[in-house]
Amino acid sequence: MTAHGEAPAGIEARPLETMDQLVEAGRVLAAYWGGDDGGMPPNLLRALAHTGNYVVGLYDGDRMVGASAAFFAEPAARSMHSHVTAVLPEHRARGLGRVLKEHQRQWALARSVGRITWTFDPLVARNAHFNLAVLGATVTEYLVDHYGQMADAANSGDETDRLFVTWAVAAARPRDPEPAEVVASVAVPGDIEAIRRTAPSDAVRWRREVRERFLELGARGLVVRGFDRERGYLFTAPPSRPPHGRA
User: Fold this and answer.
1) What is the model's pTM?
2) What's the pLDDT band for 38 if we cut at 50, 70, 90?
3) What is the DSSP string of 75-123?
4) 198, 206 contact by CB (below 8 A)
5) φ/ψ of residue 5, rounded to 5
């Protein structure tokens, strides 16, 4: 994996146009998320693609190994929302998620989209690290049981709390907080998926504890400014704003 998300040799992100391609993208998404509801219907992918939204496949040669779909938000926001992205499990740890995000970023910039939003499970440490520490996305909201009950393998039996993040695609990556700025942290397990398989009651406890702590710190006006693997989410006071009448 090279800097800035350039694709390794043989890897290419391509827009999906034919129904065969869209059916295969649905299969890739289902293979990642698992369960009956883990994919995305090809007819919905077709509708998104046909109306100018972001629907791509990530190819290793002629084989699709990842897929991503996003749709535009309200026009005034110059924003789009990345609804689903996946790379086949056997192709993880190759930096391909970064390749997809960089392709998404360039696609957005070419269409005067200034920010991309998405959600992720706050308990999944590897996603928190990628989204916050690698990409530099900003947490803007904690959403309690955002999608309700889901039947896919990743979410079945759990409440679907999510962090809503915003990625300013044309801006410099936000700086990490200085140690003295961090006033609180929220730890998460290193591998919540394994805990869900082996000790589901512990996974439920993690969900409730992390939710309670996030809501408590948010009520105090604190904001997430980073993530590290030891301490988890790093909270600081909100950035100071200039006085009225000054730039």
Assistant:
1) 0.87
2) low
3) GGGTEEEEEEEEE-GGGTTSSHHHHHHHHHHHHHHHTT--EEEEEE-TT
4) no
5) 80, 15
Contact 195, 203 (CB under 8 A): yes
- What pLDDT score does 91 carry? 82
Contacts of 186 (CB under 8 A, 6+ apart): 210, 213, 214, 217, 232, 233, 235
pLDDT tens digits for range 191-243: 999 999 899 999 999 999 999 999 999 999 999 999 999 999 999 999 775 44
d(CA 31, CA 25): 10
- pLDDT at position 240: 72
Q: Give bridge partners of residue 216 from the DSSP assignment.
A: none
* Confidence (pLDDT) at 134: 94
Residue type, 134: V
